[in-house]
């Protein structure tokens, strides 16, 4: 028969040596001892356990108010080029705003300085950047390229400037317009003078520029009014005297109407029929002169040694085809050669030394380089610069920031078939396709662009060139063009350089790596391989922190391991222990590499909640994997975050004292500040002005020298040594754009200055307490807790709230008592350097909720918690 073995309570002490595990949202019995139910406005570190965060405070200078008129439509980008070159780039996405670009400099001294910007930005640039129906955050992407920034609009349909079916350009929506494509339309490079392709010409003239053997060459422009100049022809008789024999036939002054660009030379019997003989302008690459020993008569050559250098002076003004062609060259190459767009065109059919096949234009007749390579004449040779990323840059000549179009290089070799350019600009039938570019990145001296599931790169060292240099000879410098889908269609959403590969995030639950061999990524070595298969948010780009890469998903955070490091799966969810804790959407994020922290603002619009994650490793072991939050005042909206060194910067929107909205730059130290510095957001010192005390209402009213509606607490200075902490409210009706009217309950008529700010509550809710064995496994039984001991360091007042069986809470407040203590909280005697706070619990652990919080401006660092009580093991049965 089974007999029950007796069980009794025995005293236990349960230490919580650290709460560095952050928040745990699994069942309480499945959490680690160092995980808590919730944690807000606390730093969570292995070094200090939990520590009340410092306050965010506005930076000096324009940090008080950036002066942007439309906070909701602003897009922000942090451009960091070393300690002394840190800029905040702002774009006003509202197409009714007069000013498009804003630039502010962040100085080492902690000031925000306005930078001069170009307000007269080209209208086509404005239309490109502001195109789209989504928010600026969803539409715009950017990457740094050297000392400039490329900004991409992901809703503009990019492509070639025209498609060759006609000469009309495409609009931002990919629909054809009625605008003629001067720069990129199909053109024809013609020989600089008329030629006799059939070799039949018999006439000649004395008005020639020079004579070569038995050929007379006249390089005068035959399009001039003088129709008696004919260009090139054969000399009929030997040249022996000082003068040339006259022509044998009459001249036809006016060309036939059906061939307006040809010139009639003479008539001749051909197979018994009298025909007109013409000399013609023909395409440069088509010309092969009948006499193979006279290659100088043509402009198509196989090697430069067939030509005479330096060129003839007349080659600088030589004909290049139609007037439209001349205009195209003038616009495409405004800084070289003849400014009117002239210059003799040669076609090189084979590589010669470092010269690749293609079309070359004479730009100089005295010094090298004599020639300049020009775009191919066929259709789809030029990418439309009006629908491609724009460049934000510092115009050093005028010392101001501006935005310009990028002069994307056209195709200079091959044809539309042999050198097609980016594949996503053509459909399956090789016809022009207009498509939005969704991702941009600059890595290893190449610009990478992605559209749908295609990834392309520029040439090495030439970020604005997406064409092959020589289709007959692919080299490691040429562009990449790859598809990434693997059985499943996976559109690319983000490109993130990391270590020796480019990480490709997609919306198809697959991640890829672009790698090369021998540490080179080139057309000869590039390969894309799917490496992990996890969902990934389209709200937030992947983040690099130290030697690790992270990416967010809905309610999740993943760490990614490169393929050469991973021994098992290549991505691992770090948020498994906090299910449903992380948000569905993310607005902005940043990483602090020096403090191993990730910060992300929650929501699909600016909000006041920052989700924090701290990851710390020792060797290949993760020693901290903690989540927690920072919560600002409900009227404060965070638009952008950036961690720089030991500070977290935030661009915030909040109401002034008079109710109008302003945008400010705030910063917060990630390292613990001195205990004498108030833990207040919006912290700023000010004189007290216009102070009055109304004894009938027992209210003190006064003004401070800045304007914010979110001010709710001050540290007063009276000149008598007292430093009272006073809760205040804002009188909006009597506040202005530069002052805030505050009301305090009580008589504070002796105030002369203060530190004003917005108080916040730092709190931690402990998880259910269990008795555990050495391996942290829970021992079944009943735990009756009697009291709790909290050890703290450099800590002012805080409150422990105990809730038993969902009843009203019982609060116990720690106050550091000193002899002759005054009503003060910030001076060294009024926070305890090292101390202990003991308070009763008196309840079963399953019935208790323990919250420790502080809304005082004092520091609070809880280093260790110990709970004491009695424990009764679950009785078990023995068989006799």
Question: How would you summarize what this structure contains?
Answer:
With 880 residues, the protein is mainly β. The protein is elongated, with a radius of gyration of 38 Å.
Features:
880 residues; mainly beta; Jelly Rolls; six-stranded antiparallel sheet; 62 strands; 40% strand
Layout of secondary structure:
Elements: E1 2-4, E2 10-16, E3 36-40, E4 42-45, E5 49-52, E6 57-58, E7 60-61, E8 74-80, E9 86-92, E10 101-106, E11 111-114, H1 123-129, H2 136-139, E12 140-145, E13 148-153, E14 157-158, E15 168-170, E16 176-180, E17 210-212, E18 215-217, E19 232-234, E20 263-270, E21 273-279, E22 300-301, H3 323-332, E23 345-348, E24 358-362, E25 371-374, E26 390-395, E27 400-405, E28 435-436, E29 439-443, E30 446-451, E31 454-457, E32 481-483, E33 492-498, E34 501-506, E35 511-515, E36 527-532, E37 543-545, E38 548-553, E39 556-560, E40 571-573, E41 586-592, E42 597-602, E43 609-618, E44 621-631, E45 637-644, E46 647-655, E47 661-669, E48 681-687, E49 689-694, E50 699-704, E51 713-717, E52 725-730, E53 740-745, E54 753-758, E55 762-766, E56 781-795, E57 798-804, E58 810-814, E59 832-844, E60 848-854, E61 861-873, E62 877-879
Question: How many E strands?
Answer: 62
Q: In angstroms, what separates the terminal alpha carbons?
A: 6 Å
Total helix count?
A: 3
Helix content: under 10%
Low-confidence stretches: 200-266, 819-825
Let me know the largest β-sheet: 7 strands, antiparallel
Query: Radius of gyration from the CA trace?
Result: 38 Å
**Spatial order of the strands in the main sheet?**
48-54-51-52-53-50-49
Structural class comes to: mainly beta
Approximate shape: elongated
- Portion in beta strands: 35-45%
Mean pLDDT equals 85
């Amino acid at each position: 028969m089974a007999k029950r073995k007796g069980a009794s309570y025995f005293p236990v002490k349960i230490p919580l040596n650290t709460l560095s595990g952050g928040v745990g949202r699994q069942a309480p019995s499945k959490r680690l001892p160092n995980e808590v139910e919730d944690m807000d406005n606390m730093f969570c570190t292995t070094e200090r356990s939990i520590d009340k965060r410092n306050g965010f405070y506005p930076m000096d200078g324009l940090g008080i108010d950036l002066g942007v008129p439309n906070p909701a439509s602003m897009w922000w980008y942090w451009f960091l080029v070393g300690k002394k070159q840190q800029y905040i780039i702002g774009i006003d996405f509202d197409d009714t705003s007069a000013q498009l670009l804003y630039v502010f400099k962040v100085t080492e001294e902690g000031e925000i300085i306005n930078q001069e910007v170009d307000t007269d930005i080209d209208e086509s640039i404005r239309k490109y950047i502001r195109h789209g129906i989504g928010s600026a955050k969803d539409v715009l992407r950017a990457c740094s390229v050297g000392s400039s920034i490329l900004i991409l609009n992901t809703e503009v349909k990019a492509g070639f400037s025209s498609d060759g079916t006609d000469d009309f350009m495409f609009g931002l929506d990919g629909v054809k317009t009625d605008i003629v494509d001067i720069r990129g339309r199909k053109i024809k490079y013609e020989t600089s003078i008329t030629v006799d392709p059939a070799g039949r010409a018999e006439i000649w003239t004395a008005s020639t520029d020079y004579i070569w053997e038995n050929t007379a060459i006249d390089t005068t422009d035959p399009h001039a009014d003088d129709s008696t100049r004919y260009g090139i022809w054969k000399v009929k008789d030997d040249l022996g005297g000082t003068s040339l024999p006259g022509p044998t036939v009459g001249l036809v002054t006016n060309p036939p109407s059906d061939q307006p660009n040809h010139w009639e030379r003479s008539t001749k019997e051909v197979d018994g029929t009298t025909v007109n003989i013409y000399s013609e302008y023909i395409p440069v690459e088509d010309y092969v002169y009948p006499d193979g020993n006279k290659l100088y008569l043509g402009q198509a050559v196989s090697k430069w040694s067939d030509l005479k250098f330096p060129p003839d002076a007349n080659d600088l003004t030589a004909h290049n085809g139609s007037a439209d062609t001349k205009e195209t060259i003038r616009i495409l190459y405004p800084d070289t050669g003849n400014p009117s767009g002239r210059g003799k065109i040669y076609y090189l059919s084979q590589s010669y030394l470092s010269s690749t096949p293609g079309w070359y234009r004479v730009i100089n007749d005295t010094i090298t380089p004599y020639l300049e390579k020009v775009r191919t004449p066929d259709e789809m040779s030029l990418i439309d610069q009006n629908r491609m990323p724009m460049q934000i840059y510092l115009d050093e000549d005028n010392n101001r920031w501006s935005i310009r179009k990028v002069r994307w290089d056209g195709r200079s070799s091959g044809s539309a078939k042999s050198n097609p350019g980016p594949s996503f600009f053509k459909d399956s039938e090789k016809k022009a396709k207009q498509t939005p570019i969704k991702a941009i990145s600059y890595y290893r001296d190449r610009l990478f662009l992605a559209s749908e599931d295609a990834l392309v790169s520029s040439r090495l060292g030439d970020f604005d060139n997406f064409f092959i240099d020589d289709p007959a000879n692919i080299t490691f410098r040429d562009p990449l063009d790859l598809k990434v889908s693997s059985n499943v269609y996976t559109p690319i959403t983000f490109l993130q350089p990391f270590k020796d590969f480019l990480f490709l995030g997609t919306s198809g639950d697959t991640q890829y790596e672009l790698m090369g061999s021998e540490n080179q990524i080139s057309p000869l070595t590039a390969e894309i391989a799917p490496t992990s298969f996890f969902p990934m948010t389209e709200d937030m780009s992947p983040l690099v922190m130290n030697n690790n890469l992270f990416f967010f998903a809905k309610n999740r955070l993943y760490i990614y391991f490169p393929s050469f490091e991973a021994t098992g799966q290549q991505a691992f969810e770090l948020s498994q222990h906090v299910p449903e804790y992380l948000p569905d959407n993310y607005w902005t994020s940043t990483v602090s590499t020096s403090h191993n922290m990730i910060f992300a603002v929650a929501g699909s619009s600016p909000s006041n909640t920052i989700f924090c994650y701290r990851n710390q490793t020792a060797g290949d072991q993760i020693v901290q994997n903690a989540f927690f939050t920072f919560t600002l005042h409900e009227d404060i909206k965070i638009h952008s975050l950036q961690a720089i060194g030991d500070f977290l910067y935030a661009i915030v929107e909040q109401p002034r004292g008079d109710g109008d909205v302003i945008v400010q730059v705030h910063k917060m130290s990630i390292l613990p500040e001195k205990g004498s510095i108030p833990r207040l957001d919006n912290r700023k010192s000010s004189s007290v002005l216009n102070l009055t005390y109304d004894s009938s209402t027992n209210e003190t009213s006064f003004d401070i020298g800045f304007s914010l509606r979110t001010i709710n607490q001050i540290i007063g200075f009276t000149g008598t040594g007292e430093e009272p902490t006073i809760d205040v409210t804002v009188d909006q009706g009597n506040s202005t754009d530069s002052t805030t009217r505050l009301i305090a309950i009580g008589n504070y008529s002796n105030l002369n200055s203060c530190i004003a700010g917005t108080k916040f509550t730092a709190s931690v809710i402990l998880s259910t307490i269990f008795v555990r064995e050495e391996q942290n496994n829970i021992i079944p039984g009943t735990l009756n807790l009697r009291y709790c001991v909290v050890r703290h360091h450099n800590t002012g007042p805080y409150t422990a709230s105990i809730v038993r069986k969902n009843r009203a809470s019982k609060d116990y407040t720690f106050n550091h008592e000193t002899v002759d203590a005054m009503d003060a909280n910030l001076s060294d005697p009024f926070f305890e350097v090292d101390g202990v706070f003991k308070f009763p619990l008196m309840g079963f652990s399953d019935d208790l909720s323990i919250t420790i919080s502080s809304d005082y401006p004092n520091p609070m660092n809880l280093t260790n918690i110990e709970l004491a009580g009695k424990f009764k093991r679950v009785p078990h049965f023995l068989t006799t």
